[in-house]
From TrEMBL:
This is Flagellar protein FlgN. Coiled coil: none annotated. Keywords: Bacterial flagellum biogenesis, Cell projection, Cilium, Flagellum. Residues 136-158 are annotated as: Disordered. It comes from Candidatus Pseudogracilibacillus intestinigallinarum. GO terms for biological process: bacterial-type flagellum assembly. Signal peptide: none annotated.
Length: 158
């Protein structure tokens, strides 16, 4: 239960970092974005460590309860817990974790879209600054002068 609570807190912190990253992307602050990405990486490493511990505890509980399963999971473990209070607490933590992960995915999707839009804007700006062959005045272009013989109003032959 303790590891699940730690996992929940770590995901809440990662969601907070993700929301801060959204604001930084909107503001276009590249240096702060670099710093927040480092912080995000640390949070992900923390989550991986806590998840590994949670998985070990889950496997130990399966062994203690003599449950045979190829993929031990908390969802399956809940069905074997008899203590009502523990079961409710576990279900509550699991529900909150799923909600946070869902919010995190949505926020990261928004961040991805914002970054893609920024990249498109930068590419468009670069394309506008780059001279094109059509706009160049020298070489390669067709001249559009009229090659008709010019006649004066008075066509006189002497």
């Amino acid at each position: 239960m303790n590891h699940l609570q730690q996992l929940l807190q770590a995901h809440e912190q990662l969601l907070s970092v993700s929301k801060e990253k959204t604001e930084i992307i909107k503001a276009g602050e590249v240096e702060r974005l670099s710093n927040i990405l480092i912080e995000e990486r640390k949070q992900v490493q923390t989550i991986e460590q806590v998840e590994k511990k949670r998985s070990q505890v889950t496997n130990e509980l399966y062994h203690q309860l003599q449950i045979k399963s190829e993929n031990p999971s908390l969802n399956e473990l809940v069905t074997y817990i008899e203590n009502g209070a523990e079961k409710i607490t576990l279900l509550d933590h699991m529900t909150k974790l799923v909600e946070i992960i869902t919010a995190l995915k949505a926020n990261e999707s928004l961040n991805k879209q914002l970054i893609e839009q920024s990249m498109q804007f930068v590419q468009l700006s670069l394309n506008m600054m780059e001279p094109s062959m059509d706009r160049m005045n020298y070489g390669g272009g067709k001249q559009t002068s009229n090659h008709q013989t010019k006649r004066s109003m008075f066509d006189s032959k002497a």
